[in-house]
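MODEL INPUT / OUTPUT PAIR
PAIR INDEX: 1
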Amino acid sequence: MAKRIITAAITGSIHTPSMSPYLPITPDQIADEAVRAHDAGAAVAHIHARNPETGQPSANPDLYAEIAGKIKSRCNIILCITTGGGLGMSTQERVQTIPRLKPELASFNFGSMNFALFHALETYKDLEQPWEKQYLGMTEDFILPNTFKTLREFAEVFAENGTQPELEVYDLGMLNNLAFMLERGHLKRPVYIQFVFGILGGMPATPENLLFMHRTAKEAVGEFTWSVCAAGRHQFRMCTLSILLGGNARVGLEDNLYLEKGVKARSNAEQVEKIVRIGREFGVEPATPDEARRILNLKGLENVSF
């Protein structure tokens, strides 16, 4: 593949407003950031919603619809809607945006894990919003649940709405889950895997782990399209390795607040521009949204409900 799909994860549900003044919060801010990322070379924008008053991650489907509509009116970027949601949301809250928006693409976490953010409180002590300390601190005793039952139910919702799953794989056991769900017919090909590294509770972000996970996925799953995202300071080196190995890359303020050591990214577009520049140094061009649609076999923007 001569081109690579660049995804911008616009705001996520990991970082809190106190961590960066550049984290987009309101629907307008999130939409603006998605359009800037598109203009910088991103083919996909990964979307979470936040309470526009407090910045807390939100499951409100009206917010997702507002964000999606604002972006669609301005550019043709692919929207990858989260079903990971925010930490502590119910499985119903996490999946409800899929039948509402019928997006082309949505994230699909493929196993349960200790999703830990509590250690961030050691760095960020002066928090602006009352919810931030509790939200981060509760993850010391938190499991992000994705049981085989909910995997099956989520897969049914995706299929019913023509939404392609982006399978988020944080650890080796999730590849075993994926192979099982394919074997039982709950998932259909083509398969799109995103390897996620650097979250406390998941796989460390090392080149060796990426090579191991990719090789194991080939043995367990067969053919698939894939991407890489990595938390914090690991973002660009792991995404560069993915590009060199023939994979795609996800950057954005959900995963990393910095552009380089000691310099906070002022927008998602800055990170997109950086990974596009790195790719071009190796003769790789970013895919356009329509090229990415063909690569991922998506249903097209005319078939969504926003």
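PAIR INDEX: 2
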Amino acid sequence: MIYLDNQATTPLAPEAREAMLPWLAGPDSSGFANPHSAHPPGRLAAAAVEIARARVAALLPAGGRVIFTSGATEALNLAILGCGATRIAASAIEHAAVIEPARLRDPAAVVLPVDAAGLIDPEVPLPAGIGLVCAMQVNNEIGTIQPVDRLAERARAAGALFLCDAVQGSGKLAPPAGADLIALSAHKLYGPKGIGALWVRDGVDLAPLVHGGGQEGGLRSGTLSPALCAGFGAAAELARRRMDEDAAHLAALWQAARAALPGFVLNGSADRRWPGNLNIRREGLDVARLMSDLRDIAFSAGSACASGSGKPSYVLRAIGLTDNEARSSLRLGFGRYTRMTEVAEACTRIAAAADAQ
């Protein structure tokens, strides 16, 4: 199997797995202890959680705190529903985990449009009385990198908070320095599934969504998993150290894939994008048939969260594509462990299968 779907999830880094193992031990070890218990094994588990928290925080701006959650979806919901804003603006290509809670809080939420490259105008008008502006750092479907630092400045000038979904950018790009709230997910940076985090700038007040035990500073009740936290922390530390190396590797893969698929049109910006994402289209291409013909190559027809809906991608429609153009698009996602030989083989076979249709 050639895996080219790293926007959907990334493989667990060996270093993250090793960090998790002591906390997955059986009854002959104290690694199973509850990190919220006061006895020595519990305090040892709590210390592991705090080490992990510091490692995740090292990917984020100074002057805030990291709240562990079950994933980025929960983190985004906590930010949007917990910040108290009743007037919200969000970009047209935000993840559903932003769009749906934003509409729940503000049924008339303002949609900030994007251009044909998938970029928000950094000087886009913000309505009076806005309380929260949401813009993702890197789009999960088309890979465009948004001008989040300028948008954060604009939000602050308007008296609003700025929330950044940094799921696809954390550990890969510098953090959005001006944000008030940042969501990230471990399994998008080679950590385990089932854990994410919300970074909250100092001075920003949130109301909890989950009540019961008062864990995570009262913002997220529930027993933390030291294993998941340790894996997240190790993955974050590894990503921080390898950031430049990973970026160079992905840029080489992207260039090679683009050159090997000359009959395809690029979706999204050619330069303001994360090179781990290649979203392309070809007129008349039946992507469902392509995926069926190439079952040993894992790639996507769009966002994994929307797969199977039968609807054309709202992200691709937001950049001006027709329904047919959106349906003839596919996404190749490269990662740290993707080999150049795999990309070459996959692209050769994709091109041949597309020509055969």
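PAIR 2 NOTE: The chain has two domains: 2-7+242-356, 14-238.
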